[in-house]
Structures are given as structure tokens and as C-alpha cells.
Amino acid sequence: MTPSEMKNAILHHLVYTLGKDVSTAHIYDWRMALSFAVRDQIVDPWFGATRRSYAGKLKRVYYLSMEFLIGRLLKDAIINLRLEDAALGAMNDLGLNYEQILEDEPDAALGNGGLGRLAACFMESMSTLACPAMGYGIRYEHGLFRQRFEDGRQVEEPEDWLNQRHAWEFERPEVAIDIGFGGHVQEIGKRANWYPSEMLIAMGHDTPVIGWKGRWGNTLRLWEARPMHGFDLQRFNRGDYAAAAEPEALARTLSRVLYPDDTTEQGKELRLKQEFFFTAASLRDILRRFESEYNDLKRLPQKAAIQMNDTHPAIAGPELVRLLHDERGMDFEEAVGIARNTLSYTNHTLLPEALERWDEGLMGRLLPRHLQLIYRINELHMKDTGSRKVTAVEDGHVKMGELSFIMAHKVNGVSALHTDLMKKTVFKDLHEQHPTRIVNETNGVTPRRWLLSCNPRLSSLITETIGEGWVDNLEQLERLEPHIKDSSFLERFAAAKRANKVDLARWFADDLKISVDPESIFDVQIKRIHEYKRQHMNLLETIAHWLEIRDNPNAGWVPRVKIFGGKAAPGYVFAKEIVRLTNDVAKVLNSDPLTSRYLKVVYPPNYNVSLAERLIPAADLSEQISTAGKEASGTGNMKFALNGALTIGTLDGANVEIRDLVKAENFFLFGMTAEEVMERRKDSGHAAEAIAKDSRLARAIETVRSGRFSPEEPGRYHGIADNLTHHDYFMVCSDFTDFWRAQREVDGAFGKPNWTCMAAYNTARSGWFSSDRTIRGYMADIWNAAPAPEVEDAAE
Ligand code: T68
């Protein structure tokens, strides 16, 4: 497409789709017109892919996920369709600012963190690899809350990305599926009919996901909850307007909000309803499609692979059995076998508080037939394995992790360490019964968004050096290695990083009114706020460092900017205190005339995908400092390494694999191993002991306790200080001393010529962390699916 063709397409949509005249168009109208012009280019390859899936009778992958953290889509589509020149040219011609237009798009925050972002990277990789697939989730009216700071405190505001029209979706009113809850069960022999007492409708909305060079397009189908019966005209006519609207409001509640919690099960009926709602709608849609093509349900596992992203869709097991057994008349054991061969399950956490369990009473009330089937699945499992332990039901609770395991033919962890710990801890017994079921698929990230699009400077340098093949064959980055000896390459590598830092510094100055020196180390920790991720350890180190600079301001300190980003779950009190402490520390440090040249703290609010795309390319140092054994994998860690940041990190999650690949000398390692953590925890005095041994740590904690950062309320942080001194489950104190040592090693290395070599090695050796590699692994080890044959690029 030429710039002038693009311009005509934009003008056409402005007038005929949006009904706007050039003279009155707002930035919103231009952005929508550009989006529609780009979307038009997606439709043909997208339809082409669908047609080929049907014509070739290809096996399809169905990715069921409560979350798809897709972020903005316009730039992604432009890049994958290679329309940058056309779009930029058209915008210039129209006198519009291209960057500003891209920034106008709301960030679709349909996820909490890593789990949801992984699903989004997987969707893009499946399209790039021409793996016929469909993502299924919920079209939340309100995504993850918007975070604002007020007096340093986190304030949550509703996120309303749907206030404006969403340019990328196609409404599918004809894809409307009835979903029921509650009611009673009528058993007929071993089968049963379920008569729900409450019904609503799941309506589909399709977003095309286009792969690199437009060679394939899959669909993300998100369900919206609609009432079965519209509003009540009789009540309305009597003047009872609120009551008339009630059924509609109640039904719609199901797709109203994304639960803002990435750790604790909400225990909310609504959450269980959401889970059943989207899982049941998706399964019905899958079976409908299957039955339109094939007439033998026994072939389901050959033609469909259904992935459960965490346990949120775990009800898929019993629901699929119900559809096959109760509704299609298949024998129960056969139905379980077919369901199991079709389903697989990804585990994302070992934290006991994050493993879903539902009260049997609640489950029986909402899903009476499913509870019966869960009992039978359990009995069958006991019979098959000769086990006498009831596995999926315990103490009046249904354990969704165990249920998912039993109903899946493969269960995967998301990093080598995590998979190993799964076998040894949460799924120890089940693993002994099914020793080949657990497999590892280390996470990955899409290089299109997380390098090509977010870091154009580094991308251009890479392409100039080794050609463009790396974009969909990321392991080609290793061809950069010989160039790491070349001083002109290194200079250009350093210049790209520096220019990214200058851009970020300008944004900090303009948007946050904080000035930082781009010569400083940009030290970044961005992720959900959680005790296991230990933002508070990073803060304590910052405070200790600050106190040391104050003691001796003229000692030639290496300047540093500590950058934080992340949201705390609204109900997680301790995490919210960490948020506030970060802001309070920033306030004191940034205005300290003795130290602020050397140390600043920046905490931009409302961390999201778009902010990550801004911060990661400008980072020198990536903080991956979770308590070993607690972070299942991490994916931010991969994005940073890929963009030439060095990691300071523990041997946790995928850090282990990153360090193996980029080599120990290019990684700042510290802290206890997962085994050491478990050992040390047995000593109840671990925190006090660590504090007694490290005067810097003691002083930092005392400074927090003293009210130095909250003079107007000196007791504000007693909670944090007491927790660290007496409890410290996440071993902040015991790892602090080594963390400090590693941080000073960073100071020593930064600014030396070798730093750029180390950074370049991180980029060159991160090719394995492409989500393309991960998806190939799922296709081979779990889905038994092949890419569509002979696919051609639609865009060059
Ligand atoms: C993350 N999990 C892991 N959970 O913490 C991270 N949980 O190590 C890993 O890299 C990532 O998954 C991808 O595998 C999450 O992000 C959630 O967000 C979540 C949401 C709702 C309920 C429970």
C-alpha cells in the first residue's frame, strides 16, 4: 500500500464510516479512520486463514483464558502488515502527528499481569506460525482498574476502554449461546438433565489477530453477557424504571469487571460464574464447529486441542463430560477419556493462596450437575490409579488445580524450575501416579511487540547488522555475537540505549515533572506489587544507599534512577502500603539537595502494557528479585534482557534459564536458592539474625520505622517495619546483604566499556525467549498440532 492509497482509505473511513468532515475531525476520529483503514487490510488474510483451516480439515487450538492483556492494537497491526511507511506518509500528508495518533488508543487492559500478557503474546505467535487457533475469553466492560496516586496512596478508578468505540472487534450477534446457572438435576439412570433456574446469553465479539507479514490470522473471541429477556415493559409502564432494568443489569454484571486480584481467590460467587460463563460458551462453540465438520465425537481430540490457561477455566473438564455424556449420550468413562485427550492445563503459580478452591456448597448451588460429575470423575480417578485419597475434593472444597490435572492429558509449568517444583510440591502425588503428564514449556514473549515495535532504534541496528530474519526467527540474534568485538557496533548499541533514555527522561520531565539525568543507571522494577516480588527489598536498598550517600556526599557516587511501576490488588493492604512507601520515599529523596543528583525515585502511576513498552527499551538494569521458588517464570525478565538491560536477580523462575543463556558474567546474581529458602525458613529467628548482622539493613528499617518518610504520621510504616523484623516470610532481610553486594557490583560495572558488551550479549543470547519457540513447544509436546502448510506472506 502506498501512502497515498492509505490516505484515501483514511479519508474514506473518516467520511463514510465515522460521518466526520476533515474540518471538524478530532484526534479520535483520525485514529479510528486509520484503524479502519488498517483493519481492512487484515480481513482478507484473516478470512483466508479461516477458509484454509476448514478446507484442509486442520486441527485447531483453542486457548481458554480469563485474561488477554492485549494493550494497544493499532501499531501492532501496522507493524505486522508492514504498513509503517504508508501510515506514516499518510499521516504526514494529512498534517497529523503519527505518534500522537497511536498514543490516543486506549490500552485494552483485560488482564492483571503476566498470565494475561502471556496469552496475548501466544495469540500473536500462533498467528505468526500459522497455527490454526482461537482465543476465548471475556469481553470485560471494565478492564483492570486505573491507578492514581493521592498523597502517595493508590486510588483505584474504573477503567473504561469501551467508552469509545473499539475499532478492532466485530460484533457477532448470531453467535449467541445460552448459559444457565442453579436449578435442579433430574437423573435418568446414570445420565441427567439439568434444568437451570437462571439463564443468560453469551454473545461473541471477534477480534482478528494478524501474524507477522500478514501470513495468517486467528480470532480472539470474547464473550459479553446479555440478558435472556430484555427489560420488563410491564414494570416500566407502571413507572418502576429501576425494577424494569434490573434483569438486564444483573445479567450484564457477569462481563462487567475483571477481578483485580492476581493472588487470592476472591471467594466470590461472581467469579465462579464468570469462569463457568466463558468456559461453557466456548465449549459449546467448539463442539458446534466440530459437529459442523465431523460426525464422530470420538475424533474430537484429533481435531481440537483445548488449553486451560491456569485453573480459571477448570470447569471445562466436567462441562465437556456433561456435554458428551448427558447431552450426546456417550458412555461416561469414554466421555472422560475424550475430554482428557482434548484438554490440557497450564499452571502459573505454586503459591497456595493463589490455587483456586471452591466451596462445595457454592458449587452445588450454582452448578449442581457439575458437582455430581466432579464426584464421579474423582471416583474414576481413584479406581484407575488405585489411590485411596480423594484428590479433587477435600474439606468441603473442590480443588481446581487437582481437577485440572486429572482432566488434562498434559500439564505444563512455565519455566524449568517451576516445573520441577510442581513435581516436588503441589502435584507430588499426582505426578507419581502420572509420571509423564507434567511437561515444561518455558514462557516467551513476542519479538514483534517487545523489540521490533517498542525499540525501533535497537531494531534498526540489529537489522542493519544481521538482516531482518530475526523478527520471526529470534535465535538469529546470536549472529550479533561476532559484532560485539566491533567498537563501532558497540558505540551504536550504546547510542540506541542512550537515545531511548533521553526520550524517557523527557517524558518524566513533561508528564511527571521529575528531572533525571540520562547518564544515570536506569534501574527498573515493573510488575504487580506483591511481597514475593519484593519491591520493599528494593526500597530498603534504596534507602540504605541514600543514607550512605548522605553520610559522605562527595564520594563520587554512580548516579541512579530507581524506577518503579505496578498496581496493588485493591484488597491487599500490605501491597498498598508498599505503594505508599515508594511514593513517600520518592518525595523525600527527590527533594534532598545533598543526594538528589545521585539518587532519584520515579514511580509513574497506572503501569500497563503501553508504559512497559516505553520503559523497557530505556532500562539499564532489570530487577528480578523475587524470593526463590515463588515467581513461576516471569516474562518481563525476558523483555528486558532482549532489549539489552542487565538483570539483577535471584535464581527464580526463568531467571535461571536467562542466566544460563546470557552467561553468568553478564548477569548480577544474588540471594538464596529455593532450597536454601525452605531450609532457612525453619529457623524462626531468620529475620532478626539477618538484621543483627547487617547494620545497613538495620538502619534502613529503623529509618522507615522512625517516620522519616511520613513526618505527618510517624507511625505510618510501623506495620512494614514490624513485619520485616518479626515475620518476613519472603526473606527480605536474609537476602538483603547479598542484594546490596550485587547492587554495588552494578555500580562498579556501569559506565565502563564492558557494560555495553554485557548488554549486547544479553540481546544476542535472548533469542530463545521468543514466544514462537514456546508455541512450537506446545504444538509438539501438548497439542499435537501442525502449522497450516504452504502459507505465504501477505505483506512484504
Ligand atoms: C504469572 N501469574 C506468574 N497470575 O506470576 C509469572 N492469578 O511468574 C508468570 O511469568 C506468568 O504468570 C505467565 O506464566 C499471573 O500473572 C495472574 O495474573 C492471576 C490472575 C488471576 C488469578 C490468579
Give an account of the 3D structure.
The protein is α/β, with parallel strands linked by helices and 796 residues long. The protein folds into three domains: 1-56 and 78-105, no CATH class; 57-72 and 107-443 and 778-783, Rossmann fold (3-Layer(aba) Sandwich), CATH 3.40.50.2000; 447-769, 3-Layer(aba) Sandwich (Rossmann fold). 48% of the residues lie in helices and 16% in strands. The strands form six sheets. Strands 7-10-11-4-1-12-13-17-18 form a nine-stranded mixed β-sheet, sandwiched between helices. The protein has a six-stranded parallel β-sheet with strand order 21-20-19-22-23-24, with helices on both faces. Helix 9 packs across helix 11, helix 27 packs parallel to helix 30 (732-749) and helix 28 packs antiparallel against helix 29 (718-727). Bound molecules: ligand T68. Ligand T68 binds next to helix 6.
Write the layout of secondary structure elements.
Layout (H helix, E strand, L loop, with lengths): L2 H15 L9 H29 L4 E5 L3 E4 L2 H7 L3 H10 L4 H6 L4 E3 L3 H15 L4 E6 L7 E5 L2 E5 L12 E12 L2 E5 L2 E5 L2 E13 L6 E11 L5 H5 L3 H12 L16 H25 L6 H4 E6 L6 H12 L4 H11 E4 L10 E3 H7 L1 H18 L7 E2 L2 E3 H7 L3 E4 L2 H9 L3 H6 L4 E3 L6 H7 L2 H11 L20 H26 L8 E6 L8 H17 L8 E6 L7 H18 L8 E4 L6 H7 L5 E4 L11 H7 L3 E4 L5 H8 L5 E2 L4 H8 L4 H8 L1 H12 L11 H10 L4 H18 L3 H12 L6 H13 L13
Parallel strand pairs: 1-4, 1-12, 4-11, 12-13, 13-17, 17-18, 19-20, 19-22, 20-21, 22-23, 23-24
Antiparallel strand pairs: 2-3, 5-6, 7-10, 8-9, 10-11, 14-16, 15-16
The chain binds ligand T68.
